[in-house]
Amino acid sequence: MAFVSKWFGFGHDAAFDDGVRAFERGEFEEAAGFFRSSAMGAADRSIRDRAKSYLAGSLGRLARRMFEARDFDSAHRLAAEATETRPGFADLWLLRSRIEKALGRWDEARQSVEQALSINPEYGAALVLRGVILMHAAEPQLGFLSVEEGVRIDHRLAGKEWVDGERAFREGDYAAAESAFAQIEPRGSDIHQLLSEGDALAKKGDWQAAAELFQAVSWIAPSYADVHIRFGQAQLELDNLDGAKKAFQTAIAANPDYAEAYALMGVASRRMGDEEAAMSAFRRTLEIDPQHPIASQEVLYRRKV
Predict the structure, then answer these.
(1) Could you report how far apart the first and last alpha carbons of the chain are, in Å?
(2) CB 59 within 8 A of CB 85
(3) Of 113, 128, 226, 304, which alpha carbon lies 20 to 30 A from 4's?
């Protein structure tokens, strides 16, 4: 099956299309304006939902820029809007927590990082930050255990800062340990950046690597239906039909009116030999989007045979 460009919603809402183009150019403020318009005005609910996800991603990118420029107040305003727009994105809560920590709002930072961990309990970078916050709150033992667990889960975090911090902790220098752990930087947690990398792998036909990356993103943003669609598409390409079907079911649970998820569920069901389930999925697709290309072609195929 060819790479499905309809994942991105092109051709259905001009504001969404313009927003994606601006996002890909790195013009996130402009992109946010288009996505706000699309989230409020698109006729298709699934497009509005995707626009909200991209709006949150645009705001998150802007918040990171402000954070790196040490404009923490602006960064916090943007991160707060991002988490309100998409409260199910763990990476945005982690970013918000980092900003609140920089502002000295330790209680808020702890609440935000706990939100990230409620979404993904195995989010290594969030466990590290929670550990730093606990150590700052005079809970060094609990803090160290959280940092240690985060590094164990995500080996990318086990750099010099971890080694120096662990040594300081073992020597009883908790202040030095906290300082070292605070320098551990979360890497590879930006949802849209990871999705772009996965899309590039898929377009090259490296479906195994794409599947692994999409699955990793699904742990960060379990309520983001597009991630599960991508993961399911990769599973289809790898001929893992059970895995594909489960991914599409998860996408439907996240967004019950997502035509693309039903269409691909129908494709998976047909390839599994369950024609009744396939036709049910295609009919549901056409109820949501009467012009859907996959469902229309598959229903026509059924009539011909």
Answers:
(1) 20
(2) yes
(3) 304
* Residue 134 near residue 147, CB atoms below 8 Å: no
Do residues 266 and 285 lie in contact, with contact meaning Cβ atoms separated by under 8 Å? yes
Residues 152-191: tens digit of each pLDDT: 988 888 899 999 999 999 999 999 999 999 999 865 556 7
Phi, psi of 132 (to 5 degrees): -60, -40
Give the tens place of pLDDT for each residue, 109-122: 999 999 999 988 88
Question: 135 with 164: CB under 8 angstroms?
Answer: no
Of 254, 185, 179, 191, nearest to 223 by C-alpha is 254
Phi-psi region of 89 (alpha: psi -120 to 50; beta: other; left: phi over 0): beta
Give the closest residue to 87 by CA, choosing from 44, 118, 47, 48.
118
Q: Please name the residues in contact with 303: beta carbons below 8 A apart, sequence gap of 6 or more.
A: none
